From TrEMBL:
Pfam families: Dyp_perox_C, Dyp_perox_N
Note accompanying the cofactor annotation: Binds 1 heme b (iron(II)-protoporphyrin IX) group non-covalently per subunit.
Family listed: Belongs to the DyP-type peroxidase family.
Subcellular location: Cell envelope
Annotated ranges, domain Dyp-type peroxidase N-terminal: 80-223
Keyword Transport in record: no
Alphabetical list of InterPro entries matching this protein: Dimeric_a/b-barrel, Dyp_perox_C, Dyp_perox_N, Dyp_peroxidase, EfeB/EfeN, TAT_signal
EC class of the enzyme, as a word: oxidoreductase
Top-level taxonomy: Bacteria, Bacillati, Actinomycetota, Actinomycetes, Kitasatosporales
Chief subcellular location: other
Domain Dyp-type peroxidase C-terminal, residue spans: 234-417
UniProt name for this protein: Deferrochelatase
Keyword entries, A-Z: Heme, Iron, Lyase, Metal-binding, Oxidoreductase, Peroxidase, Signal
Amino acid sequence: MTEQRTTEHRTTGEPAAGELPAGRQFTRRRLLGTAGAAGAAGLVVGGAGGAFGAATLRDEPAALASVGATGVPFRDGAHQAGITTPQQARGHLVAFDLTAGQTRKSVAALLRRWSATAEQLIGGRLETGDDQIAHDAGPNSLTVTFGFGGSLFPKTGLEALAPQALAPLPPFSADALDPARSNGDLWVQIGSDDPLVAFHALRVLQKAAGDTARVRWQMNGFNRTPGATPRPMTSRNLMGQVDGTNNPQPTDPDFDARIFVPAGGTARSPQWMAGGSYAVVRRIRMLLDSWDHLSVERQEKVIGRRKSDGSPLSGGTETTPVDLDKRDAQGAPAIAGDAHIRVAAPASNGGAAMLRRPFSYHDGIGSDGAPDAGLLFVCWQADPQRGFVPVQRKLDRGDGLSRFLRHESSALFAVPGAPGPGEYVGQRLLES
């Protein structure tokens, strides 16, 4: 894991804590469901009593809560949605492999179907193949993002157009990778604030693949539900740590240069990738039983931040820049030499940076009683050889947190820019 700052700003018109929107009334059928979206309806810890006291039980339907009403356009300007979109509560990561005999033409037909289907799903107007799983739901911040693996290019005769930046990631000493859950020809990332909406999109897109592609692997993840805290806050991971404080922000002057391929392409990324980005996907299991045996003080030293509020051990609040030169009262470094935030810091990696947008996962309890849980790590950058790779090499060699992590799968995908009006995702590659 590396540090990130998760942006949860949503222009949803949410009421203040403890308040109900004017005229909001609840039916008996929907009262519990609405209370589950506490932040969206104003029913939060400390304000629930007054809110329930003001609610009237009626048989009239209530309007969608703000979480359900939040929509994200299929195109985020020059980029696909799902990269800088605020993290959603539910995610599916799915890799597909082409079936035997597929061609560039059949892959183009698949991407045309997928793009049209995704746009219809996001707009709430699916025209064909709808099983009505999410028929009565709002958009719930649904996004669908498509990418291409390095193995796609030789299978479709497009080797000459494969980006140099898509070269296989180097091995790392801490890797314990499962090949069956790594790589893939095509990749789909689905995010939504409602699990049913996310599953619906997954189901429809999987059926739309038809005989062209088969699922290679699928991973399901989750994040904190928007509105679960009284104000937007940085998420916590399954270790209980505030996780995401130092992510690059879209307001940073060099954000686009670090995250997206520039217009015109580069020597390492052809023109068809302009406006796109590269996604590194890693399934990182957290050895939670070992971690939980550490004292809170020891956990904080491993990370370099206070567990309570995410503030750096060098002092200040969560957003205070980390002072790597700060000394404690005994003259020792306030941030230990192998602390995660020191090893992952851009200053320790020649300025290398990436946009982390992960999901947590929990796939059950093993026979030994240990949870199979951790992080579905997804990071975005204009060139993984200048973003992910140098940082992971440094972490691989000297991160104190690595003793409590196991990297179990890995993949890299080229995610092209958003299609223009009337285009489908990847058209500039597949019809070049």
